[in-house]
Predict the structure.
Amino acid sequence: MNAYTNMAVGALLSTVFVMMSVSIASEGLFHSEAPEKPGFEIVAEEAPAEGGAEAAAAAAVPIAQLMATADPAAGANSFKKCASCHSADPSSPNKVGPGLWEIVNRPIAHHEGFSYSAAMKEFSKDGTVVWDYEHLNHFLAAPKAYIPGTAMGFAGLKKDDERANVIAYLRSLAQTPAPLPEPTTEPAPPATN
């Protein structure tokens, strides 16, 4: 080895030795214990059981009553939150989520070419369950509470009027929009919003 190599290796080893010594000394001088109680806790909400209370509470007003005053134009504006993952085009290509053209009364988990989660496939009961107004209302209120295990990461639309507007917009995404739900004669329970 030549003299320059020896000096470079010596300088490296000396630097490592000094850094280790400073690290050990500073740990001894400035050692801090872990706090008994964290400064703040992040509490992750557990998903309730299928059809959980959160989904029922969030969608307490009957959908027929909500749809009577729903505004598809306002729903189109709110749908912008959904457009990054879902297509509203008639060709209805799949994105992160399935295309939503003609979604109302379409069998759940049956959009061609989309790979649905096991939870969504199970909920659909092999395509016998459809995206009617009730299912859309409850699912859009709290997706993970209504269908636990769904891959849809959206938190939901908590406001009844906004959710109804989006459903009205989804209804308009069809050659022939599905008929509106019939209003019930029973009084509506009080809104929880």
Remarks:
- Helices lie at 3-29, 53-58, 63-68, 72-78, 118-124, 133-141, 143-146, 160-172.
